[in-house]
Amino acid sequence: MLKLSLQELHEKGWKKREEELFEEALVYLEVALKRAVEEREYEIAVDVLKDRCLVWKHLFLVSREEGFAVLAKKDAEGMLEIARKQKLEKKLGTSYFRLGEVAMMVGEFERAVGYYQQALEHYQGSLAEKGDYRYHLGEAMYRAGDKSDGEQMMLEGIEEIKKGAREVDSFLVNVWMSGGYMRLASCLVKDKKKKARKYWRRAKEIAEEDERLVIRRRQIEEMGERLGFA
User: Fold this and answer.
1) What pTM does this model have?
2) Segments forming the whole domain that contains residue 150
């Protein structure tokens, strides 16, 4: 492992995370984070913290162990602090976005709205990914009680992804699109079940059309069983 470059360490870390090999991912990400700080590669340090935050997030969602939520929050806060101190303007958006995700997973919806709004204000990147940010804000608004505007915000986010689809890899487009429809289904299931089922089916269609979306297909099936759609 010591012979690997910083970029190789980070790549192995996020790939292990994508493969859901979380213990191995944490080992690579820990070494990558130390190396990034030593080499003053602060942009990479922020990205490594992002991947580690996502590992803690997954472990929390599986176990509901509060300690993992604390670790996820600390890494998201670390991202933001480094981005601010090192004047990494293009990393501010993703830092606020991760803080929003952490707030959502512990049910702090109003706080999540604030973080997602700041993420959009600082966002620099493709229109498609901006749509991903926007529908996350919509979900937070909906769950915070602003249901009408939240639903509309989620739909606007999905439209942005469609408009910007040519700017990014189709894999990411399909992940974001299916995720947006899943969130719509999850939010609307109690108030507009027919609509919710339609959105769940659309997410399922997108995932089934792209063989690379292995994890997403599993998530959609689990959601369908949980909501009574499967």
Assistant:
1) 0.93
2) 127-222
